[in-house]
Design brief:
Elements: E1 6-10, H1 23-33, E2 39-49, E3 53-55, H2 84-96, E4 102-104, H3 111-120, E5 128-134, H4 139-149, E6 157-163, H5 169-173, H6 181-196, H7 199-203, H8 205-208, H9 212-215, H10 223-230, E7 238-241, E8 245-246, E9 250-251, E10 254-257, H11 259-265
Parallel strand pairs: 1-6, 2-5, 2-6, 3-4
Antiparallel strand pairs: 1-10, 7-10, 8-9
Helix pairs in contact: 1-3, 4-10
């Protein structure tokens, strides 16, 4: 199998599961166009641990790790198989890279994993497992974490960093309003760095980008982008999948890193 690309997705609010907007159909089309993976590895900020943990569950449960949303969301399940053998391979790679990972034989998939997977692979027919996000990262170490997992892309694993291109929860919780210009400006700055393949600039996004502190008052939803970029063989080629802005402040853009992803995401 040729090397698979890596992918960053913005999972937005849990309502993305039932309100696909622009991003949902585009992720579904991407899932249909990409070479079929043996498994999907997801890194999500909704599973953060002091040192990384790797889910070895054969049949991961659907975790509804949110409250106060439409009751219909709590009825959704994503009945996917895990892939303990490839998860063990991820565990080994992280160990070789000095990350001191631990196995986890109980935890299921949080909404940062199953919500975007529900769009990418709606039939739940591609095995999936999670690797937790280390709690203390910066731009360089997030990139290095992805690089430690990168060999899996040669072995049929689609590495997905699931976060949010902008993530200001206080503004999200204040209720729907007009699209905030700062979110679009921040997203455009990051998009340019991705398209240019400027890895140094990307790693310094939260220092250099306009409105970075407002777009990410906390950093955990940004690091999955750098994990996905670090897992790529090279920062280029990279393809932008525009997802628009939901709830006024949540940019839903996704990025595909790698030649196969560029071909799959190209317009017909």
């Amino acid at each position: 199998m040729n090397r698979l690309p890596s992918l960053f997705v913005s999972h937005g609010a849990p309502t993305f599961a039932i309100e696909p907007g622009l991003a949902g159909p585009r992720l579904r089309a991407l899932g249909q166009a990409l070479p079929r993976p043996r498994a999907v590895l997801v890194v999500s900020p909704h599973w953060m641990t002091p040192s990384p943990r790797v889910g070895l569950v054969a049949r991961p449960q659907t975790i509804h790790d949110f409250g106060g949303f439409d009751p219909a969301l709590y009825e959704i399940t994503y009945p996917v198989d895990g892939h303990p053998a490839l998860a063990q391979r991820a565990l080994d790679l992280l160990g070789e890279a000095g990350w001191a990972p631990q196995p986890d034989e109980r935890r299921g998939l949080d909404h940062g994993a199953w919500v975007p997977l529900r769009h990418l692979y709606p039939a739940a027919d591609v095995p999936a497992f999670q690797v937790s996000l280390p709690a203390r990262l910066d731009g360089d170490s997030a990139w290095a974490f992805g690089a430690a997992l990168a060999p899996l892309a040669e072995e049929g694993v689609l590495i997905v960093g699931s976060g949010s291109l902008t993530h200001n929860l206080a503004e999200f919780r204040s209720g729907p309003g007009r699209d905030e210009a700062y979110a679009a400006e921040f997203a455009a700055w990051v998009r340019d760095a991705v398209v240019q393949g400027d890895s140094a600039r990307l790693r310094q996004t939260l220092t250099l980008a306009p409105h970075a502190r407002r777009a990410h008052p906390t950093t955990e939803h940004f690091w999955p982008l750098l994990v996905a970029a670090g897992a790529a063989a090279s920062a280029l080629p990279a393809t932008v999948i525009e997802g628009g802005i939901t709830h006024g402040v949540l940019s839903m853009d996704a990025y595909v890193f790698g030649p196969a992803g560029a071909r799959a995401a190209a317009p017909a």
